[in-house]
Amino acid sequence: MNYFKKIVGKRLYLSPMNVEDAETYVRWLNDFSVTDGIGTSCKITSLENETEWIVQNSDKYQFAIVCLENDKLIGNCGIQGIQQLRRCAEVGLFIGDEENRNKGYGEEVLNLLLDYGFDYLNLNNIMLKVFSFNERAINCYKKVGFKEIGRRRQSYYLKGKFYDEVYMDILKEER
């Protein structure tokens, strides 16, 4: 697979997404261990829809997360909802396979996205949303410097329980 080292970290790099990876993304986006955390478990993702999404978003700051040592795709991330006049946006990410979680990759990805957003997109405020049960992600976000700014209470229903949607952000001056 041809990946391009757009944003390079210590162990990972962020590359423009490849349409050829659509099948891998479809596998991940139909896996409850991934989708429960990103709020899309009720959706069914088809190969055709994912291929179309990749093509439509190829120039919209959506990236493949790739390991430097072996050029292996491990997840996806992006900066969305960019408001240039207000200099704010949102970030999101997921690591696909369980074997690649709990290795600090999320922290590295966020640092790469924040550097890119603040240094190249001229953003001042970057926000994310996370569900209250996802303590692993919340701890990662706090480590990077995100602070909780509010909650939408009981706004996510999953497996018979309600959870809060937690809003967190970070300012350029806090980096």
Q: What can be said about this structure in brief?
A:
The protein is α+β, with helices and mostly antiparallel strands.
Name the descriptors.
single chain; 175 residues; alpha+beta; Aminopeptidase; eight-stranded mixed sheet; 8 strands; 35% strand; globular; GNAT_dom; Acyl_CoA_acyltransferase
What do these coordinates show?
The chain is an alpha+beta fold and 175 residues long. The chain has a single domain, classed as Gcn5-related N-acetyltransferase (GNAT) (Aminopeptidase, 3-Layer(aba) Sandwich). It has helices at 22-29, 32-38, 47-56, 105-119, 135-144; strands spanning 7-8, 12-16, 62-67, 73-83, 88-95, 125-131, 147-158, 161-171. The protein has an eight-stranded mixed beta sheet with strand order 1-2-3-4-5-6-8-7, sandwiched between helices.
- In total, the number of domains comes to 1
The CATH class turns out to be: Alpha Beta
Q: Give, in spatial order, the strands making up the sheet with the most strands.
A: 1-2-3-4-5-6-8-7
Shape: globular
GO molecular function: acyltransferase activity, transferring groups other than amino-acyl groups
Protein name: GNAT family N-acetyltransferase
Keywords: Transferase
InterPro entries: Acyl_CoA_acyltransferase (IPR016181), GNAT_dom (IPR000182)
Topology at a glance:
Layout: E1 7-8, E2 12-16, H1 22-29, H2 32-38, H3 47-56, E3 62-67, E4 73-83, E5 88-95, H4 105-119, E6 125-131, H5 135-144, E7 147-158, E8 161-171
Parallel strand pairs: 5-6
Antiparallel strand pairs: 1-2, 2-3, 3-4, 4-5, 6-8, 7-8
Helix pairs in contact: 1-3, 4-5
